[in-house]
Amino acid sequence: MDFLKKNPSLPVFIAVLVIFTLVVTFLSEAYGTGALSTSFVKTLGKTLCLALVAIAMDLVWGYTGILSLGHFAFFGLGGYMIGMWLMYARTKIIVVESMVNAPIPPTPSEISDAIGSQIFGVVGSSDFPLVWSFAHSFWAQIALVVLVPGILALVFGWLAFRSRVTGVYLSILTQAMTLALSLYLFQNDSGLRGNNGLSGLQNLPGADAISQDNISIWFFWASAFALLLTYLIAAFVVSGKFGSVIRGIRDDEARVRFLGYSVEGFKLFVFTLTAILAAIGGALYYPQAGIINPAEIAPIASIYLAVWVAIGGRGRLYGAVIGAVFVSLVSTYFTGGQAPDINLGFYTIKWVDWWLVLLGLSFVLVTLFAPKGIGGLFDLVSGRLSPNRQGAPLGPDKGSLREEEAEQ
Amino acid sequence: MLRRLVAACLLFLTCALMAQAQDRTVQDVLQEHAEVIVKSSRKTIAPAIEALAGSGLPAAQDVLQAWQSKDMWQRQSDGLFFKAEKRDSKTYELFDFTTGQSVGTVEKSDLKQLKPNSGIRAMIGAALVQFQLNDPDPERRRAAILAIQRDGEASHLAPLRESIAQEPDPDIKALKEVTERLLTISYDTDEAARVTAINGFKGALSLEARAALNPVLTTKTVYAEDLPDTANVKRELRAGSRDLSASEGYALMIAAGALEPQPSPDARKSALEAHIKDGMVGGVPVAALNTQEARDRAYVALAREGVVPPFDPSFSIEDAVTGVRFAEVYAEPSKAVTDAAEVVLSSINRAVGLNQMFDLTLDGLSLASIYFLAAIGLAITFGVMGVINMAHGEFIMMGAYTGYVVQQIVPDYTVSIILAIPLAFAVTFVAGVAMERLIIRWLYNRPLETLLATFGVSIALQQLAKNIFGTQARPLTSPGWLDGALSINDVVSISYIRIAIFVLALVFLGVFLFIMKKTRLGLETRAVTQNPRMAASMGINPDKVNMLTFGLGSGIAGVAGVAIGLYAKVTSELGSDYIVQSFMTVVVGGVGNIWGTLLGATMIGFLQKGIEWFNPSNTLAAQTYMIVFIIIFIQFRPKGIIALKGRAAGD
Amino acid sequence: MLSYESARQFCGFQQGNMEVKIQLKATLASALFASTAIASGAFAADCPIKVGVLHSLSGSMAISETTLKDAMLMLVEQQNEKGGLLGCDLEAVVVDPASDWPLFAEKARELLTVQNVDVIFGNWTSVSRKSVLPVIEELNGLLFYPVQYEGEESSKNVFYTGAAPNQQAIPATDYFLDELGVEKFALLGTDYVYPRTTNSILESYLKSKGIAEEDIFVNYTPFGHSDWSKIVADVVALGADGKKVGVISTINGDANIGFYKELAAAGVSADDIPVVAFSVGEEELSGLDTSNLVGHLAAWNYFMSADTEENASFIEAWHAFIGDDARVTNDPMEAHYIGFNMWVNAVEAAGTTDVDAVRSEMYGQEFPNLTGGTAVMNVNHHLSKPVLIGEILDDGQFDIISQTEEVPGDAWTDFLPESAVLKSDWKDLGCGMYNTETETCVQLKSNY
């Protein structure tokens, strides 16, 4: 009960999510009236995954004060890990089928060679690289979804926090990590098919007979469920004493350290936990998108993630969700060429051309005039207002909590 | 007696041919070979060129030159060839080759231009050598020598040697002498002359010398058990060593017939398929053939029956090649020549290696200066003021586009560059000041938010550039005097544009140091950065200082954009290519210190070139490993190479 | 008269465009607000006939793909002026996948299920095609892909109107070997699938032509690479053993500008080290000063300088449509021109836009090339087209110095051991990946 009291938004969030899931299900082509096309259901499912990773970002940035520009890298890694199994298993079924009619039954190494040349023939090679060692096993790859980004975050975080790299330096460092990872994956020699990435992920192995109408709604359910769990985990983490400590770290790291807390340990835990959450989001996202390639991991994706959280309102979990859902759906609407042109007489504004300008300027406006983001509107509803301190800072640190955020 | 008779006959024949040739015009020769000339393929063109060059007709040189420069046209109506000159867009005036007279003006649609490809042009060039070596025009003589260097043949040797003595121009004479020695190495029959010529190239770095020497030393690895004694052996080899793998040795033995090849797995598999009887092969059921062992067992059984070639499962390539002699053998039979060439070439290679290191150093230096130039503006806004400006790359881009726009208005490239540099500074200075006034000054206490807001500006500016200039890359052309490269020798060279960038980087370093250390603005900037309140109470206006400093940093980024646009390309994504590198340059070097930025750029530039040198086939890997190195480096020196100490460090 | 004509055209285009937009708006509204209006599109499916255009209008690929979108709008407009198709007007449905590969799959699904288009013309990069493939195959759509690509693919639902490696890379390499006498090769490429696959095909082809492995230098650079000094120096140094060096470039997009600038600065003339490029066309050359590059080569199936009646009228129509006489035409535009006209003829022959019926009418379709001769659609879904090699001129155009007979496109290359045994025949064998050794169909769907 204490938990709920500390998180008044939790029941509302669960209710909204459940109702949304039910509505989408009853309007889907598979289980309902068919008013929502399958491609739109996929878009909604993907948006839920983005909301999930936005919660992770909010935990690490909004609550702990680490502006990580690398969480989309973990998201992508999760996608790669599940994608390897999907590609391998699907190709194996095709290869085994085509070999059934051969006069002599194939040896295991012949099967594996044939799978290799099917998967890598596209990029001009045919041998399995070492990183595919576990691709044959579903459970091993599922474990890797958690382990690979987790260990990367652990090692990277340990090195960075140990050397007391903080603030914008850490941001630039995480950005460098993202860039290095995407450049590495861009190489064909990395063994993950370079620029082509892994594709055809929406075709589940052995599920050829099942329509994408059904598969899309299953993934939608899974994404909604994962989002719910993530929200619960995040709410649990930020509500107890642990939450107080990490917020303390955000506001004044040195003071928390003087109080005897192991700041590095707390940061490392949050960094790694959120990396794992992001990876799970990615593992659900990319089978719906159908393709993952290194461009997904480019540094700009991680910056967008930060922007979603900023626009939605950081330091509150539902803010992150709102930001991710709002910006990505509006973005889809404008870049889809579906928004009507505005004719000014002398010039016609085509949204395809001007949407990014608008988005860019809206970051500026949100940071300058609405640091609480869209989530701040809920404070108006609940009537909570910040005390007026005439701009005096609350703590000595640069980047520490401003007065607008203090009242929570 | 007999010999004299033959000689006389030959003489007579030659005279007769000459006499006949007098009656023939060059047009006849062309018509005889009209088919291959029109077909214009290097594989079939040789007889036509030989016939023209050997015709002895005075017009032959003209024809060849016109053909080579694509000025020869064929009239469609009668198939005759003429030299043509353009009159206007639709008509050409034709000239007869023999008389040089105009034969009228013809519609383009009735003409077909002969377009010899560069392979044929080189052959024509080689054929022209005999006419051009003693041509009064020095440029033609030079062209003839280059044609020999490019496409020399044995027949050039004699005329070249003759022409050296009468060469008036000392430069061309030296060129002819070198070329003569190159030809001697490749084509002379006299061993001693070749050795002398080879020794003449000791320590020479030119590409041509290496190109002449290397073919002399071509070797082939062979199975050496039955090698003839006359063979010019470079060295003996054992299979399984670094230079010759066991499987290569095995292949050589099979090629030499010294070993019966073992059937390959694929061959064995298809043999098994061919001998399936009632679901069994060699006593093994087909369904059980899904392992290699079972297949081998079945195959051995078949081999025992004698229906397939024998196969020994215990056969190993390593055992088969052990103790067998292999050798590397020169294609060149003369040992004296190869020995001399080995000695000279190894001296050349040492010199080339040294020069390559030097060239790599120049490349590294050039890359470092580009990174430095891209980062120096950031060294001011981020390094000195502590403002994270993600739109820094877009300021670089704006500078580059300013250069492009100026070039559209001022067509003279030199003038336009001179104009573009201050203009780019002005444009980005204003943009920087505007951004500082409107956005950044509200966020001085919130650096992470500055990052986001300026990122917003960055994507908006990028998209604006796309809307205005389009997504296509725009040309920004350097003036003629920056074309080409400074070549110290055939190995070491660097383009002038890179030298210009290097100089510009040095100038900026100087300007930065001067402003920071010697001017009032520099003093005030340093004061405001260290303690804004104290500075304010000393009568400095921190707002104004911040504004000017930020404008300065942005302005420098704009000028850097002009330079970067000159050497690479001008697109809306130009800036984002440099932004992460620039930040890393500043962070690695150490924030707040221009020397640190310089060191950071140098380290990153050299590191990248060094990694590229280790792995020349993958430039992407070099960039990846460089970033990984930087990440690790920052772990151990979080404050960069030159860390500020004491109060200036801020914390 | 002329101005009246162009004004009418302009208005016609505007109107068409508006219709598209209104349609799109309606669809989105129905999708977003979950009304049941979605089905209304399905009733009118027969008329107008909808042509989906799936080209990026924003992002990094907009530079190339926007032109193709305009070319498609022009072709649709021309067809409507001729009286449409099967008595219906054609309607272009334009969507923007924004150079985002997953978005290509999403937009393709939207075109096929929400807009119910009858055919899609689109894609540029291989990775975007691979992203779209599963969707097109699942929903039995029809895609015309207009860009030269690496081959090793033959989907039942895709017609490849661009060049396969044997229609561009192999003839260009033959030209190097036979005509220029090149003995040592530098294969420079941007690090992605097209250069990788093309280079591995070329490597094995060159070895079969007796070029030793050490005489083939391969280098991959990232997209947008700008620092070329070391690579150009490496290429020049290859000439040290007296063999003639040639560069085969699969460098993509912007990176070419820096590469050619460095080449010019190093004084590398086409006579010393010729460069043949597979991704450099008229559009790319407009971004740089070509006076120092005269004589370097490019291989395509089309050059704007082709001297034929058809080409002249195509260029004229293009300039009139786009309202700018400086705009160039290029190879993928010709591919769309051929593909679109073939599709129109196939629909007329079939009397319906049904994908399976149209597909079986496509085999053997003939249409005149803009460069002369006739393009033929083969049963492996690739075209027979002539191969052209052009030398760069100082005005940014190409001088065509070699033009072959029509070469049939080969889905599976003969120069890689794994694919030499494969062939594609959708008409008689009904299989795009048929193993001629085991005489079985390896798979009906494609590799993605």
UniProtKB/TrEMBL annotation, chain A:
Quote the cellular component terms of the Gene Ontology held in the record. Answer: plasma membrane
InterPro entries, per the entry: ABC_transp_permease, ABC_transptr_urea_perm_UrtC, LivM-like
From what superkingdom does this record's organism come? Answer: Bacteria
Give membrane topology per the record: Multi-pass membrane protein
Keyword set for this entry? Cell membrane, Membrane, Transmembrane, Transmembrane helix
Q: Subcellular location, in the record's words?
A: Cell membrane
This chain's protein is named: Amino acid/amide ABC transporter membrane protein 2, HAAT family (TC 3.A.1.4.-)
Organism encoding this protein: Celeribacter halophilus
- Transmembrane stretches in the record are 12-31, 69-88, 138-161, 168-186, 215-238, 258-285, 291-310, 317-334, 354-381
Residue ranges annotated as compositionally biased, kind Basic and acidic residues, are 399-408
Q: What is its main location?
A: membrane
UniProt key word Transmembrane helix:
yes
Q: Name one GO molecular function term.
A: branched-chain amino acid transmembrane transporter activity
Q: Where is this region: Disordered?
A: 389-408
Per its UniProt record, what PANTHER family does this chain match? Answer: HIGH-AFFINITY BRANCHED-CHAIN AMINO ACID TRANSPORT SYSTEM PERMEASE, SLR1201 PROTEIN
UniProtKB/TrEMBL annotation, chain B:
Name by which UniProt lists this protein = Amino acid/amide ABC transporter membrane protein 1, HAAT family
Compartments, as annotated in UniProt: Cell membrane
GO CC term, one of those recorded: plasma membrane
Sorted alphabetically, the Gene Ontology BP terms of this entry are:
amino acid transport
Q: Which InterPro entries match?
A: ABC_transp_permease (IPR001851), ABC_UrtB_bac (IPR017779), BCAA_transport_permease (IPR052157)
* Membrane-spanning parts: 370-392, 413-435, 496-516, 547-567, 579-607, 619-636
- What PANTHER family would the database entry show? ABC TRANSPORTER PERMEASE PROTEIN, BRANCHED-CHAIN AMINO ACID TRANSPORT SYSTEM PERMEASE PROTEIN LIVH
MF terms in GO: transmembrane transporter activity
- Membrane topology (UniProt): Multi-pass membrane protein
User: Keyword annotations for this protein?
Assistant: Amino-acid transport, Cell membrane, Membrane, Signal, Transmembrane, Transmembrane helix, Transport
**Entries under Pfam families matching the protein:** BPD_transp_2
Q: Which family does it belong to?
A: Belongs to the binding-protein-dependent transport system permease family. LivHM subfamily.
Source organism per UniProt: Celeribacter halophilus
**Signal peptide limits:** 1-21
UniProtKB/TrEMBL annotation, chain C:
> Which domain of life does the protein's organism represent?
Bacteria
Q: Which UniProt keywords apply?
A: Signal
Q: Which PANTHER family match?
A: ALIPHATIC AMIDASE EXPRESSION-REGULATING PROTEIN, PTHR47628
Per its UniProt record, what InterPro entries does this chain match? ABC_urea-bd_UrtA, Peripla_BP_I
Keyword Iron part of the UniProt annotation: no
Under the heading SUPFAM superfamilies, the entry gives: Periplasmic binding protein-like I (SSF53822)
Q: What is this protein called?
A: Amino acid/amide ABC transporter substrate-binding protein, HAAT family
* One matching Pfam family: Peripla_BP_5
Annotated signal sequence range: 1-44
